[in-house]
Amino acid sequence: MSGTSILDRPVQYLKGVGPRRAEALGKLGITRARDLLRHAPHRYLDATTVTPIARLAPGMEGTAIGDVVSKGVIPTRKGLRLFQAVIRDSSGLIECSWPGQPFLDRTIRKGDTLLVAGPVRFFHGRQIQPREFTVLARAGDSADEEGTVFPVYPATANLTHRQIRRIVQENLDGLLAAAEQEESVVSEGLRREHGLATLREALEWLHRPPTLAHAEEARRRLAFEELFVLQVLYARARYENRESRRGVAFERKNSLVGPFSKALPFQLTAAQKKVLAEISKDMSKPQPMNRLLQGDVGSGKTVVAVFAMLRAIENGYQAALMAPTELLAEQHFATIQQLLTELPVRTGLLRGGLKTSERRAVLEEVASGEAQLIIGTHALIQESVEFQRLGLAVIDEQHRFGVRQRMKLRRAGADPDVLVMSATPIPRSLALTFYGDLDISVLDELPPGRRPVRTVLRRASARSRVFEFLRAEVASGRQAYVVYPVIEESETLDVRSATEAFEHLSKEVLADLRVGLIHGRLPSDQKDDIMRLFVCGEIDALVSTTVIEVGIDVPNASVMIVEGAERFGLSQLHQLRGRVGRGGAQSYCIVLYVGAEPPERLAIFASTNDGFEIARADLRLRGYGEFFGAKQHGLPEFTFADLSRDEPLLHAARDAAARIIGTDPLLERREQRALNQALRSEYRERLQLYDVG
Ligand code: ADP
Ligand code: MG
Fold this sequence. Notes:
The chain is of the alpha/beta class. It has 24 helices and 21 strands. It has four domains: about 5-40 and about 155-210, no CATH class; about 50-145, CATH 2.40.50.140; about 255-285 and about 300-420, P-loop containing nucleotide triphosphate hydrolases (Rossmann fold); about 455-610, P-loop containing nucleotide triphosphate hydrolases (Rossmann fold), CATH 3.40.50. The strands form four sheets. The protein has a seven-stranded parallel β-sheet, with helices on both faces. The protein has a six-stranded parallel β-sheet with strand order 16-21-20-17-19-18, sandwiched between helices. Strand 18 (about 515-520), helix 17 and strand 19 (about 540-545) form a beta-alpha-beta unit. Helix 3 runs antiparallel to helix 5 (about 200-205), helix 5 (about 200-205) packs across helix 6 (about 210-245) and helix 6 (about 210-245) crosses helix 22 (about 645-665). It is globular, with a radius of gyration of 30 Å. The chain starts with 17 loop residues before the first helix and ends with a helix. The model is unreliable at about 490-495 (pLDDT under 50). Bound molecules: adenosine-5'-diphosphate and magnesium ion. Adenosine-5'-diphosphate (ADP) binds near residues 298, 300, 301, 302 and 447.
């Protein structure tokens, strides 16, 4: 990449831009010419899919082409001025109306051929309100814009998508010529192997596609690039882990694992056995394990973690288990102590709220090696707790833990093995993108004999009957959750807030029950106090926001009522549902919705208990960014790749990355020069994080 390429020039100096437009483009993240070249249209208008004007019917979204037969600016009673044009094709006439855009009178001329797209309404006759339009041909002139497929760009204040299109089109040939001079991150061999367009073709078809199929080819090529560069980064991180880190090769001594296995009151599921074999193989290698264990709620991850920790301990090392909250750490501690009653393993719980002297005592046991299995929150590694010989760290992740913290586990001496557990099933494409530096194990089977939670959708108007049901369950000794999406009355959201609902439920509807309230704005020790009351049965019905989403285990709770379900994502609903059905009793998840029919999302939710299926639907419906509540997690963002449908492309990119790093780990070969550079500029920070840079 030479600094003198026109692609590196500020966008301001391009034809038709200038300082004011450059500023507007800057708001779209376009500062240099090369950014403009990769500014992705979010849609295309396809003139080959037009509807004859006579067949445009009110209520439909239509695309039409016609010649302007009359036009003018019309004042409305509200003082708004609107521009109208009547267009005609061989089948008929229709009025086009642009409220508030009188200036179009200067853009659109009588005799022009227009492509318009927008909703068709009935308003003194049929009318279309174009969301988008293009002047295909000027009156009596040659074509203004060529082709039949028109990109529609994300626009911004002071710059319409049409102005952006014009800027792109005016500069495209020059920019493409410059782009052709540059090396691509996808080598020629790789490009051919995957039948990808050349970079020049891709960039041209992105902005000036002869057909929609070409636009898709362009997207596919550019998406491959995005996925590929990230996968190369991951392949490098894995390579570094393999080559230059020292871990512990744990032996299968079975002095603890054997007795533990014999004493277990149940048979492991086939999935648990498979996953344990994978973990065991990793642990026996001299490189540190870096593995993600994914499994739906209740799939039995804890037992798997205990097996792994015992293997470390029987080899003379310590193992640590880190939970996202104090309460969960306590729960893990109680569960694990019970599982280990017969075994000579010294456990320790490092929780908040310990007296200084107690805390110091625990820390000393950890530092001396006396404590072998240590449970705590993520603070265990965030504050530098000294371990005598940490061999394995299990991280119960719940989406809160990033690469950065995982990396903190690297210590002087041998690196501990790391097992990350996630209870939020995510589609494989997301796992490979978010956890691409880890190996992945999946628990895709629940222990036998579980009674699936029965999910029912009820109209909000049936609320009083739903609460009668809750009361009946409590009368037979059960407990219930009632979940609301927000905690305070909001003028914009028409949802009942948890606080308000709590007042109402505890004083009226459920006045005879013990009702508790928990929400995210309470201090965490208060939250834990309330949860403890619920755990030991002192609260019958717990009104809450989504704070209970995170792994709490109250087997006696059999009812989950979700209010305002429109506001929850599918995966979130599934996590909520996982709070019930943990004991022997039949459990219920009752979702209240507003309106005549439940939305598609809720129908999907009620139709399956499979977390992975739900996650796939969620990704498809909401998209990648929303799915994870993404940005704050530092997830890679994509312009072109769509993880809900690009999984095959992702696998291709991953395989290619593994092959390249396998033969040329430092990317020293001539044909990988651009790739090396891209990695250093786009992922510099991550490279450093993985110690790859
Ligand atoms: P999660 O994957 O949600 O962390 P847990 O590890 O908490 O699941 O397991 C849920 C429950 O299932 C626990 O009570 C655990 O003892 C039990 N369990 C785990 N594995 C099995 C199995 N193979 N057979 C029967 N019960 C099991
Ligand atoms: Mg668990």
